[in-house]
Amino acid sequence: MDLPSNDNPTLLTPTSRHYCKILSVEDDQDYQEALLNGLSALNYDNKEVEFLTASSAADAATVIAANPDISVMFLDVVMETDVAGLRLIRTIREVIGNDLVRIVLLTGQPGMAPVDDLIDQYDIDDYWCKADLTQSHLQTIVLSNLRTWEHLSDMKEARHGMQLLLASSQRIASKSDIVEYTHSILEEVGQLLNINSGGIVCFLHTEDDLIEHARIVAASGEFSSYVHRDLLSVASKEEILKGVVEQASKQKGHVFLEGFSVLYFSNKELDEREYMVVVKLNRALAANEINLLQIFCENIGAGFRNVALHNKLTELAYVDPILGLYNKNWLLREIRNMLSWEREKATLLMVYVDDLAYTESVLGAKYCDQLILSLYDHLNEFFDKTADIALLERDTLMLVVYDNQDYNESSLERIIHTNIKVEKATHSLDLTISSVKFSEFSSYNPEQLISVGKSTLARAKYDGVAYLAFCNELASAMFGRYELLQDLREAILNNEIVPYFQPKVSLKDNALIGFEALARWEHKTRGFISPELFISLAESSGLIDKLDRQMLRQSCRAIKALKGIGINVPISVNVAGNEIIRPDYFSNFKTILEEEQAPAELIELEITESQLINEKATINRHLSALKALGVHTNIDDFGTGYSSLAYLSTLSVSTLKVDHSFVWQMEESEKDFEILKMIIELGNILGLSVIAEGIETEQQKAHLLSLGCENGQGYLFAKPMSLENTIHWVQSGQ
């Protein structure tokens, strides 16, 4: 920060003390008059000297209380009582608390000096016998004590000023928002200078703005109504104000003039602004006040820098760097700072833009950036600017709407299917929206609200609905799923999920040709969990790789167990397409086979057709590596995806597995029968084996044989079995 130079500041003539007070406490009126006469010619730096008198200790206490700025006091030791003078000293030092006044003790009895410990005990500054005080000696004593008093007063004022300065600096240091910070500056300057007329803080951009267009960011006192207005609005009523601000901006430094003082700060390197703190004065500033302000300015300047840095960090923490929209962290903070009445009428909406990734691939990233910004404006307009809007992900906006309405698909139709302007053209959008009413889930913290909003949105997309509201029933299902996930982690860790083996047979003679390993989980309290449930849970939670490795390892052990009874057939294991393309999958696969001493030709992998399509850009290279190792790959659930003949011809696969849905419906649907026939013929054309799954009747088996499908699996032959039961099934002759 460029701190202002004050080599040639425009200063007021500093004010200083122009008078001093001397008190004589003496019950001998003649001596008191003589004392005053001896001091009448006193000249203390051409300052006015005021003489005060008291004839008793009691009178003196009254005078001192009314004049706390007495500099020097002459005090007779003995007055109405022998100890009246000492009692008065104690009252001054301990009761009134005046530790600055210089006390000169006088006695009329030569040789009767008080002992040293008495002088220290009563904080007496000087002691003289009346008879020893000549006029010149008297003036020397007074001048010496006056200078000492003034020096001590200056020191006390400086200490007090520094205490005020320290407290003020600590208070403003806690402010990180520019509005709060600038208001605090005005408050603290007012307290430091004991002024209440008011002031303003304004800023201008150094390269562009004219002084009269300087923006007022804070105001106090008589200027309170000018916040957020231009400086011109004040300058038109206070003629001197514009001139003093112009002078400060031109000099790049503080300016102290009669009527107004301006503190100048430059923050060019951080926010390219000049700040001016302008205070209205109803008196001249003392020299120590100007010095105090200049020291305080060092703290103010550092504070402006800290606020600017905080704003920069806030921008990084709370603003998306590409679109300039607030992000999730910002919305969490806004929800966290909500008042109770705001939560009562607030609803969280999450808005997902369907097919944005496709739009970006066709029209480009910049177009999609503008699309989201146009949607942002559209949502602001739709909700009449009663919403806080933030970006969750590139294709998802979050809104907190404060209108206490019950939303549904009908009321949101105008934004679910909407047209917006993008680059002077109309773009049609389909949106998916979830909602969470804060009042219905008052115990949820901000993170939970956003989490359930996001989960509800995912559920809406999965179910293919345009709108879904979070409710207690959905909450129970989600939390039940979460509890099941915790159990799933533990089950995988403890190897509680085991393979069950379903035979694959030749449809011609029912001869065993292999097994498929299917994961089964018997929960400790809930019994067998549906594979569809826990496998999808493993996929969504990132546990599927661990589960796949466990199934592979246990299948390798099953191969050895079957070989032990003379059965040498392959076992196929399922693997997720996004797992097989991981860089370390092949090496991990080989390691498991080597550790378990399982032959690669007896392990087959099954990947669904849809997964092959999703990962088609990279998967074939990995399939080729597996084929080179001797591992066969089967396409599972074939017919449910959309793979082309050209794509299939390039894949390093060995078998097509016909999805069970075609087997079950071929006798009732001519269309499904024809599809089934076409799949079998396609496999034969590509030189691939074909196996049908889900065979349950002899009639289905016969139809498949008639179509040229020679292999199959299903309940007609055997259900999936544990390894123990599989061995028993084989040994019993199937």
Number of helices: 28
Q: Assembly type of the shown chains?
A: single chain
pLDDT < 50 stretches: 1-15
The main β sheet shows up as: 8 strands, mixed, barrel
Structural class: alpha/beta
Count of extended strands? 25
> What gross morphology would you assign?
elongated
**Strand order of the biggest β-sheet:** 17-18-20-21-22-23-24-25
Give the terminus-to-terminus CA distance. Answer: 87 Å
**Approximately what portion of the residues adopt beta-strand conformation?**
15-25%
The Rg value, from CA coordinates, equals: 46 Å
Please give the share of residues in helix: 40-55%
What value does the average pLDDT take? 83
Pfam family, one: EAL
Domain Response regulatory: 21-145
Keywords: Phosphoprotein
Protein name: Diguanylate cyclase
Q: What tags apply to this protein structure?
A:
eight-stranded mixed barrel; alpha/beta
Q: How would you describe the overall organization of this protein?
A:
Helix 13 crosses helix 14, helix 17 packs across helix 18 and helix 19 packs parallel to helix 21. The strands form 4 sheets. Strands 17-18-20-21-22-23-24-25 form an 8-stranded mixed beta barrel, surrounded by 6 helices. With 734 residues, it is an alpha/beta fold. The chain starts with 18 loop residues before the first strand and ends with a helix. The protein has 28 helices and 25 strands. Strand 15, helix 16 and strand 16 form a beta-alpha-beta unit. Pfam families: DUF3369 (PF11849), EAL (PF00563), GGDEF (PF00990). Keywords: Phosphoprotein.
